[in-house]
Amino acid sequence: MGGIVTIYTDGACKGNPGPGGWGAVLIWKSKVKEISGGSKATTNNRMELTAAIRALETLKRKVPVELYSDSSYLVKGMNEWLNNWIRRGWKRAGGEIENLDLWQKLNEVNERLHVKWIWVRGHAGNRYNERADQLAVEAVPNLK
């Protein structure tokens, strides 16, 4: 398996907290795979993290990945905050880390891959970002 895997992820929530969904588009060479899911009681940030985790978990080999998200929470967390949290014993300067279980899982998955975390402006016409958003939104009503 050669080449870079490109992933677009997004999360959605009806109410915050409330029912939520997540979606991801994975692109490798000319293949496109879409995945999505949801939760009856969650937050938008949990869905953003879950989308990234689920997408990265689909990769069975260590490959270079470019993961695009319109969530500054996710991208800043991975690029700026994570190393400090780990150094402090999974604490942040102000105390507890919200969504700690998901950050720890995301760190586990991230460690076995070569992920470049890239922020992309949401709702700006990026085809795959828009599709990830659509998948996340469509996953929310399927929870009845």
Q: Your description of this structure?
A:
This protein is α/β, with parallel strands linked by helices and 144 residues long. It has a single domain (5-143), classed as Nucleotidyltransferase, domain 5 (2-Layer Sandwich), CATH 3.30.420. It has 4 helices and 5 strands; from the N terminus they run βββαβααβα. It has a 5-stranded mixed β-sheet. A hairpin with a 2-residue loop joins strand 2 (18-28) and strand 3 (31-42). Helix 1 (44-57) packs parallel to helix 3. The protein is globular. The protein starts with a strand and ends in a 5-residue tail after the last helix.
Write the layout of secondary structure elements.
Blueprint: E1 5-13, E2 18-28, E3 31-42, H1 44-57, E4 64-69, H2 72-87, H3 100-111, E5 114-119, H4 127-139
Parallel strand pairs: 1-4, 4-5
Antiparallel strand pairs: 1-2, 2-3
Quaternary structure: single chain
Low-confidence spans: pLDDT under 50, at least 5 residues? Answer: none
Encode the helix/strand succession as letters. EEEHEHHEH
- Helix/strand-derived category reads alpha/beta
Largest sheet: 5 strands, mixed
Number of domains: 1
Question: From the 3D coordinates, which CATH architecture would you assign?
Answer: 2-Layer Sandwich
Number of strands: 5
Helix content: 25-40%
Give the overall form.
globular
Measured by DSSP, the beta-strand proportion falls in 25-35%
First CA to last CA: what distance?
Answer: 39 Å
